[in-house]
Amino acid sequence: MARFLKSRKSSHGASPGSLIFIGNRKMEKSEIHLIAYNKETLIEKQIDNLDEIQNGLPDESVLWINIYGLQDTQLIEKIGEKFTIPPLELEDILNTDQRPKIIENENNLTVFLKVLEYDQENTRVAGDHISMVVGNNYVITFQERVARYFEPVRERIRNNKGRIRKTGPDYLAYALIDTLVDGYLQSIENLGAVIENMEEEVFTETRKEIVQKIYRLKMNVSFIRKSVFPLKEMMLVLNKTESKFIQKKTYSFFKDLLDLSTQAMEAVDIYYNMTNDYLNIYHANVGNRTNDVMKVLTIFASIFIPLTFIAGVYGTNFDFLPELHFKYSYFIMLGLMVVIAGAMLYYFKRKDWL
């Protein structure tokens, strides 16, 4: 399967709003994780069905529902019915190839994101599709698999650190997006360190493995680029749009996310250009190495041209060549060849051709 575009054979020809899962199945069975909290109370549990959501929730609480696994289209449909999520948005939630964007309707605000992780052992950036639905008193997150992307936010809620237990779902959404953006920067930093550490190797080596390594790094940067550029667009839209689901005091935090996304985009651009430069330097080094070889061969050929001429003259089949009957002719000829070759080598050295 292509890395940059998921197969859409299953959804080909389907009507808009059809709930069809697009992507790789990463879990056998979907799971529902629930957190409900206010200033004083916290409830955290795993539930089996959506009917358990309203049981025993604290008053004026913020509800965070996390869905692990997107392959269960019936569960996604039930969530859409319960929280009035439009079918077109549910379709995008099930499409793991959906680019980052933001959609608002009368009932909720839906954010589509990617989470990025750089595997240093395999030198490969992997990504998961994350969707987030923000309502008046709830946040629903959809993940492809069980992962610890949001664990820092859960720890802040459990330990009642900062303002998260004192604010609404809009601040929770900010905290979750902030965690993902921090992951972007961490992945870019790790990949960037590998790219920067290659500099000396690129300048000095011309092995085939070098160009393969550069190409893999460029592919990883392109994979990150595919997610970071739409993220910047999404943050611009979010900061310019007045949404009823985001309080005015929370917009200052989203402006910080805009700065972080700009920083991420600038870093990706720098590393993308660096990989291009590395490829150009590699090809230039290979060309220079070939030129050096050709120069040495040309010098040797230039030295042997006059020597070959002398050998050719005295190798002719004429009957009368006076030098042939001189006692020391052979040694004189060899000496002349050595002098000519030495003079030419000296001349090439003076010209810095050697």
Automatic annotation (TrEMBL):
Superkingdom classification of source: Bacteria
Subcellular location(s) per record: Cell membrane; Membrane
Catalytic activities: Mg(2+)(in) = Mg(2+)(out)
Pfam families per UniProt: CorA
Xref: PANTHER family: CORA FAMILY METAL ION TRANSPORTER (EUROFUNG)
Keyword Translocase: no
Protein name: Magnesium transport protein CorA
Gene Ontology CC, one term: plasma membrane
InterPro entries: CorA_cytoplasmic_dom, CorA_TM1_TM2, Mg/Co-transport_prot_CorA, MgTranspt_CorA/ZnTranspt_ZntB
Recorded name of the encoding gene: corA
Entry's transmembrane regions: 296-316, 328-348
Keywords per UniProt: Cell membrane, Ion transport, Magnesium, Membrane, Transmembrane, Transmembrane helix, Transport
A Gene Ontology molecular function term of the record: magnesium ion binding
Family under the similarity heading: Belongs to the CorA metal ion transporter (MIT) (TC 1.A.35) family.
The keyword Transmembrane helix belongs to this UniProt entry's keyword annotation: yes
Functional description taken from the UniProt entry: Mediates influx of magnesium ions. Alternates between open and closed states. Activated by low cytoplasmic Mg(2+) levels. Inactive when cytoplasmic Mg(2+) levels are high.
Stored NCBIfam families: corA (TIGR00383)
Membrane topology classification: Multi-pass membrane protein
